[in-house]
Design goal:
The protein is mainly beta. The chain folds into two domains: 1-80 and 96-136, no CATH class; 142-305, no CATH class. It contains one helix and 17 strands. Strand 10 and strand 11 form a beta hairpin. The longest helix has 8 residues, at 178-185. The chain is globular. The protein starts with a strand and ends with a strand.
């Protein structure tokens, strides 16, 4: 089974997808995937997925092992048009879903890659189209428009199936500030609907196409505009984010970022470490980045059923 690699430019959404050389893992072979809905996508290769199954009954969402007959193994893909959607400017961050057959290794990286895009449900059966323009956004329980993402800043996204909960779990969000925000949205930075607490959020779903539960804050960064920073936030004493007005037990700063506040982003679930606990609870281990100081922090979150 090949290693599927995705990387690309956010400006034109041309994503390279390919595989690593089995004898030299620093050498990659890739092909372009032209997409206008799947920027910085989250992927999961599963053991058995058949779109013809009503309500997903019979699908096996364990991580594919690539052993034996791999015809039933599929790559599930979630993505958004932007890392930062500015609703005030008509740029959304809605969520889309697709799947593809499990690729076979190819020395040129030109294996078959033909995603099918979710277009809705008919009698509980998910429908898919090979045409990306037919894709419809998923239900995020967003008020008058159930597909609306509540906050513009979604950043990186990680999605995992937690068998003990029989649920898909999504981590995403955080914040962007200053030059970083301007880089992604330009003049729209002032119109961005930010979470004032810069939190990483969690959502749940029974099926990969949703409906997804409303977002819940799983890790609060804090309001960067409050000076001095409030105790109990990641900007205050003992926190992991730098704030220039913090005076006691503060997070260090990067030498190149003497005054810029840190923020949370890049939340990624560490699948092999997910651990069942007593009473049906689950410990989810995940990484989060902090910008200033520029680092990665390992987190553990307990989810009760």
């Amino acid at each position: 089974m090949p290693t599927v690699l995705l990387f690309g430019e956010y400006s034109d959404l041309v994503t390279e997808i390919g595989n690593a050389d089995p004898d030299d893992h620093e050498t990659y072979y890739a092909q372009p995937w032209y997409t206008h809905k799947f920027a910085n996508p989250a992927l999961r290769a599963v053991e058995d997925f058949d779109p013809a199954r009503a309500g997903g009954a019979g699908n096996d969402y364990r991580i594919a092992d690539g052993a034996g007959d791999t015809a039933s193994e599929k790559v599930l893909i979630w993505g958004r048009p932007n890392l930062v959607g500015v609703r005030a400017l008509g740029k959304d961050a809605k969520l889309y879903f697709a799947y593809a057959d499990m690729p076979e290794y190819d020395p040129s990286g030109r294996f078959a890659w033909e995603p099918r895009y979710f277009t809705g449900l008919e009698d509980g059966v998910p429908q898919f189209s090979p045409a990306q323009e037919d894709a419809v956004p998923l239900d995020l329980s967003g008020g008058d428009d159930p597909t609306l993402e509540r906050h513009d800043i979604v950043n990186n996204m990680s999605i995992s199936f937690v068998r003990a909960l029989d649920r898909w779990v999504m981590l995403y969000g955080g914040d962007l500030q200053g030059a970083s925000l301007v880089y992604f949205v330009g003049a729209g930075a002032l119109s961005t609907a930010r979470d004032p607490e810069g939190a990483i959020h969690v959502r749940y779903a029974s099926q990969p196409w949703g409906p997804w539960s409303p977002p819940e804050q799983v890790l609060l960064g804090g309001d960067p505009n409050v000076s001095p920073p409030v105790d109990g936030t990641q900007y205050g004493p003992g926190g992991i984010l730098f704030h220039p007005e913090c005076t006691t037990d503060c997070a260090p700063r990067e030498p190149m970022l003497p005054t810029e506040r840190g923020y949370l982003y890049g939340s990624y679930i560490v699948d092999p470490w997910t651990t069942e606990r007593n009473g049906g609870a689950v410990d989810l281990y995940w990484n989060v980045s902090t910008w200033n100081p520029y680092g990665v922090v390992l987190m553990r979150t307990r989810i009760d059923p």
